[in-house]
User: Fold this.
Amino acid sequence: MISLDTITLPTDLWWEDETDWTPVDQSTEYSTTGALLVDLATKLAGRPITLVGDESTAWITRTTTLALMALAADPGKVMTLIIDTRSFQVMFRHEGKPLDAVPVVRISPPAATDYYYLRALRFLMLSENL
Assistant:
């Protein structure tokens, strides 16, 4: 099961960047004496969560697409994202496009029940609820 607040999302969305992130940050520089200075820290938040689909997966209705667009239009809105048994506090990532949905069939005017597929939902994790 995948859900965002009260919106049920397709279970065939793929968490594309799940293994790309590391909770440790490191920077190095040399002092004026030539000694190596290493600064290490644990990241407390900011993990990207990008859920992706394609033409044959991750279909949602236009109504759901518009509901996701409304959430993305609320700056700084904190939401609960549930992926299987894991729960995250997230907000949309607005560096670029936070939501990418494409009509499966282009019909004008579109009906509320027409299908779109999710190419991407982009979130920024604030915390993981254990």
In short: The chain has one domain: 2-129. Residues 43 and 74 are 26 Å apart (CA to CA). DSSP finds one helix and eleven strands in the chain. The chain has a mean pLDDT of 94.
